[in-house]
Batch of 4 targets.
Target 1
Amino acid sequence: MTSHDGTPTGERMAAAFQYCHWCRGFASDVRPVAASDAGSGPRQQSYSACPSHREQHGLVPLGEQTL
């Protein structure tokens, strides 16, 4: 079902597949869990994990971490 502007209402949208660094492959509902900015260049390394690896390794998504 969609609303008058074409956006889904009451339906769960399909999760996109992204790369999980622990699976070393693509998985559903992957979230970034760590980032590092080592060095002086513009390159930043980040790591993402699927739900099963977040639970298994106690990883907290960056958006849910508190400072």
Target 2
Amino acid sequence: MSSRRGVGPTLVVLIACAFSAGIHFALMPSHADESAALGAGFAVAGLLLLPFGLVVFTQPHSSAAALTTAVLLALLLAVYLLSRTAGLPGVGHGPEPFDALGLLTKLAELGALLALIHVYLDNRSRPPPLPKTRSNA
């Protein structure tokens, strides 16, 4: 990382994504017993969260990384809310009750999403880099 600017928010993203990935992996077997699609969803979430958080942390000036990770987190938050209000289609049952671990995980993801907004806005406020010039030496 070439600059200390933005390290706080990107570290929040990394930690929150790692935490959420761990929870998704830990809950994957029990959700796979419930539904293969649900288990696969937990596996995909776990597989995407950590590398996305890592890319945001190692490339803090990448607006694309911030936006992509924000979309992933927003989707995970939306799916959780849907699973608790209307139920997920194809799972075979209605809404699930809210639970402490789920709420804690979603709180971490929401914190990461807010940090990503900060990262994205910080990146947009920076002037674009100057083009590199070739030396004739």
Target 3
Amino acid sequence: MGIAGNKISAAKFTAIEARCDLTGITWKDNEIASQTMGIASTAGIESKAPKIEALPSLARSAVGPLWWK
């Protein structure tokens, strides 16, 4: 199992809270800027401020169940 392509910016918080054994989990192309990482330094997690871009808003008609439209 792998965790890839995440961008986390949590200046006042711990980025990752692991409550289980992480053996067997691979990390790839993750960028994290946080007060603390929460786990040991791991290959596939880069400690840097990620560039996070806002997504465009969706129209109400573009989401939700079909019967609601």
Target 4
Amino acid sequence: MKRLIFLLVFLGLISGVLHPDGKNYIIEEVNGVKVYKNQDKPSVEGLVISPRKIFEIRGTGVDIKDKAREFEWPRSVDIDSKGNIFILDTQSASIKKFSQDGTFITTFGRRGSGPDEMSYPPYIVILNDVVYAADPYEKRILKFDTAGKYLDNIKLKTSTPNFVQKINDDKVIGYLSQDIPDEGKEDSFTSFFNLHLMNNQFESIAILNEYKRESNPAKNDFIDRYTAYAIGTDKIFVAENSETRYRINVFDFNGKQLYAIEKEYTAIKFSKEELEELNTSLKNFYKRFQVSANVPPIEAEHKKAISGIYCDKEGQLLVASSVERNENNRWDFLVDVFKDGVFLKKVKLDILKGHDYVKIHDEKIFFKGNRIYHVDEPTSIVSAFEY
């Protein structure tokens, strides 16, 4: 009997100790949807996620002898079935291929409007070892094999999807924008910016999050448009874009809602410095395009409850949510860790500088297999971490 008790205690220690108050959540059914309602207290202790940098790939520098290898504006990263790393350089409209250990292999794609050319591509995604690269100016998706050979392109009826991620070899998820003129109103239209589940031809299967706004009065609605999402092994997680409610809707790969996750949350205001930083990021983004867009600044009062979500190799959901900032945690990248709808603990990841809002021209992370790839756009550095 003593051996059995010791074994149970040991297993509890390695998996995380239950909170002494018992469960930190309840499950309710709201409008036919099961909702995990979590308290803002951990259910386990001792949980840590410790990424370790194994190498970095610098886009520019005096030590780079091969000009074909250079990249200036890394915006998207994906891997093929062999673990080779593909980095999209939006500046040169090209894709750089590296081996698993960061050794340069080849480059393909270029700026232009020809069959195998692009202008300011925003992302790449690899499906069944075919590299798909967006060409927004021509409203199409270019296809290359993983050796860099141009294969074909997919012509799109409306806009090019943005912020696209792979679900499996048959499906992707991303945003589609559309402006529809308002009948009888000159220079007036309604903008739609919906999150779509799509097939591998980038045709919509289902809408997982809807957003629309009127063109008048004009405003900068950048932080209202984008809601964070992540892909797990068999589920899609979509955050609600709210200042007051912490909620994530969970879907299967066919777009059917399975359940929702909520957690206690109180609205947090932007500081003056944070708003200035956010608007500076947007200005720098437009400068990259070499345009002087007269876009009004963002004047939001409160932050969004959730600014980013990710799925790790353990099947855990990592949620970057807004927190009260002070001098001690000003730049900490903090994530709430969930497993099967239940809040485990808030942890700090020493990968990037933390922000409680999306900066479009800044640092990004991509969870790919057993690695995390950190993309620092301003410095043109892509780093690989194991964890």
